[in-house]
């Protein structure tokens, strides 16, 4: 592939988003996506298992970044500091290209039950990856659960803010996690009931 | 329906679980489930939209209980106290019958991608319901997000513990939320990185 053209995955994703927005997710076929991207259906299936997955590419890479980010945090880092390291490690994938299509991608997902389910599972995958990596650092099961839950919230809130304002995802996610940490520590308690 | 027989929904769920465990989810049809339950396919479809939904019945009721639990919490209750009220309100659906089939239900779900996705979306539904109900009480957007996230974690941890040990779900969930609150307040901080 010449450097003058985006790679096949990116072309397929753009073509898919164009078609999903023009005619709806349900009404679009893999053959149409491939055609719009100027590629063949078999090229499509070399990259993505089915129609849905074009919107959810790159998850394996992200899960690896979560794992290596947490494993690579300093030994003295607490659970949330390790989660922060994961978010910072993920930032490398939050490129300007990804930003540009992000809003359209999210609006397609939110309009379609099947895609919202897939997205919910993706988030559950991040939660599991954070929790498992924290457990491997010797974090207690309860603390790992709580830190992973707050980490995924930071990812979700950070992503929404990044789509709005752009900028460096690492910074945005760091700020989101910081706010969440303060809020979690100060939440008015269960004992009040 | 006579009082000597369980209602159609429960019969269909039991039949479905039997078949899913015996021959796998993929290999089971709605017609087989209905037949095993001694009911017709059209009765099945009066109760559940598709094969999957037999495992996820009652979510609307639960979402309503979440909403009314949070809305009905005392005005002075903080966000986590309101979330606790939601968990306590949900307890009415955690019956001995539900307990009896819970472990099998969960193992079928965890074995099948499609069902795990559906389950992830169900949890996201609870999160949204908690967050929206908290917002209606005037809780800030950040606090509502954090409290809902911790509330869903309490639901998940409480449910797992309840399936293991049985007992009163309200008590189990309350304890789970209490632990989570303490852990969240004490998590070692992001500023350490």
Write the layout of secondary structure elements.
The structure is a homodimer of 193-residue chains.
Chain A: H1 8-23, H2 30-36, H3 41-47, H4 59-71, H5 79-90, H6 96-111, H7 113-136, H8 141-165, H9 169-186
3D architecture notes:
The structure is a homodimer of 193-residue chains. Chain A has helices spanning 8-23, 30-36, 41-47, 59-71, 79-90, 96-111, 113-136, 141-165, 169-186. With 193 residues, chain A is an all-alpha fold. Chain A has two domains: 1-55, Orthogonal Bundle (Arc Repressor Mutant, subunit A), CATH 1.10.10.60; 58-192, Orthogonal Bundle (Tetracycline Repressor, domain 2), CATH 1.10.357. In chain A, α4 runs parallel beside α7. Chain A is elongated and about 50 Å long. The model of chain A is unreliable at 1-5 (pLDDT under 50). At the A-B interface, α5, α7, α8 and α9 of A face α5, α7, α8 and α9 of B.
């Amino acid at each position: 592939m010449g450097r003058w053209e985006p790679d096949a995955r990116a072309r397929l994703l753009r073509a898919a988003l164009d078609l999903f927005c023009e005619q709806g997710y349900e009404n679009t076929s893999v053959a149409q996506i491939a055609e719009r991207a100027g590629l063949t259906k078999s090229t499509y299936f070399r990259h993505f298992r089915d129609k849905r997955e074009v919107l959810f590419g790159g998850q394996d890479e992200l899960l690896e970044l979560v794992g290596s980010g947490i494993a690579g945090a300093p030994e003295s880092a607490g659970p949330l500091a390790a989660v922060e390291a994961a978010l910072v490690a993920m930032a490398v994938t939050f490129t300007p290209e990804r930003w540009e299509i992000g809003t359209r991608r999210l609006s397609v997902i939110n309009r379609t039950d099947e895609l919202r389910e897939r997205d919910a599972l993706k988030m559950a995958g991040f939660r599991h990856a954070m929790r498992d990596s924290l457990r491997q650092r010797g974090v207690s099961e309860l603390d790992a659960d709580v830190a992973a839950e707050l980490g995924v919230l930071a990812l979700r809130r950070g992503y929404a803010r990044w789509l709005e304002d752009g900028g460096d995802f690492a910074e945005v996610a760091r700020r989101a996690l910081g706010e969440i940490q303060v809020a979690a520590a100060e939440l008015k308690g269960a004992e009040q009931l």
